[in-house]
Amino acid sequence: MRNYYETLKVSPEASGAEIKSAYRRLARKLHPDVNHGCEETALRFAEIAEAYEIVGNRLERSKYDKKLRHAQLNNSNGDSVFASNNRHAQRWRQMVYEKRYNEIIDRMIAEERREATAMQNAIFPTVALFVSTLLVVIFRPKIFIDAAIIGKIVVVSLFIAGVIHIVGRLRDAYEHYTYNEDIHESILDENESKRKPYSRRTATMFLIAGLLTSFGLGLLIGHYVEFTYIALPSMFSSTLKPEFVFYPPIVVLFVDMMHAFASRLEN
Asked: Where are the domains of the chain?
């Protein structure tokens, strides 16, 4: 049975990210265009593409691992404990099978947790950005303009930290869930586009549309909401000030920090 881990030059315990990295490195090295159509490298390129289709997919990898473990144990020579008919050897062999299968299941669970964490890291900041934009435009706070110099420094510092945080989260989300539909240099890009649900253009349009929708709804609702300005004129303005851009990134930063803290408590 072909060992796809050896084909990709990775350990059977390698993480999904390590397998992807190894595949990309080999694919760029062995691409037929890079090697002037060499038949030998083209064959190796096809082999690593086939290997990545299996072990690069979490469910397919689990099935393959079970078959590989079974084949490795059954291919032992007749003098091996794996081929012995001794009942104690059979019991030990069963324990080995169970241990290997439990390792596969544990790795699948770990991969699912990483996938769930990646999904949450993409969803929470995005939703927080939309909702905070909506609320800021509705209520029109004026914290920055009336703050002392120390307060202004704090707001600007939090704003910069929030922007850096959002950019990092969006970069990770784009890397994890989007593909570049304008670039198809090799099978590598085609395989990745199958695994990633959205194009980068679609994701960018969604973000822009979400922000514009939040801003528009905020203006519409804010036109009829005057009680905050009337009740607390020192904190809220009757008109939308340019300083409103400071607040959504700050809200996203704090919401994400609270989510991360709550996730650690659950674990």
From this structure: 4-105, 114-266
Q: How many angstroms separate the CA atoms of 260 and 168, rounded?
A: 15
* pTM for this entry: 0.63
∠ at Cα 18 (12, 24), nearest 5°?
115
Reported as a single tens digit per residue, the pLDDT across 107-135 is 777 777 777 788 888 898 999 999 999 99
Neighbours of 62 (CB within 10 A): 16
Spatial CB neighbours of 193, under 8 Å, sequence gap ≥ 6 = 179, 181, 184, 199
Tell whether domain 4-105 is in CATH 1.10.287.110: yes
Beta strands 178-179 and 198-199: pairing type? parallel
Mapped onto helix, strand or coil, the DSSP state of residue 198 is strand
Distance CA(59)–CA(216), nearest Å, equals 43
Q: How far apart are CA 191 and CA 198, in angstroms?
A: 13
pLDDT tens string 161-216: 999 999 999 998 888 888 776 544 444 455 554 566 778 889 999 999 999 999 99
Contacts of residue 36, Cβ cutoff 8 Å, sequence gap at least 6 = none
How many residues can be counted in the chain? 267
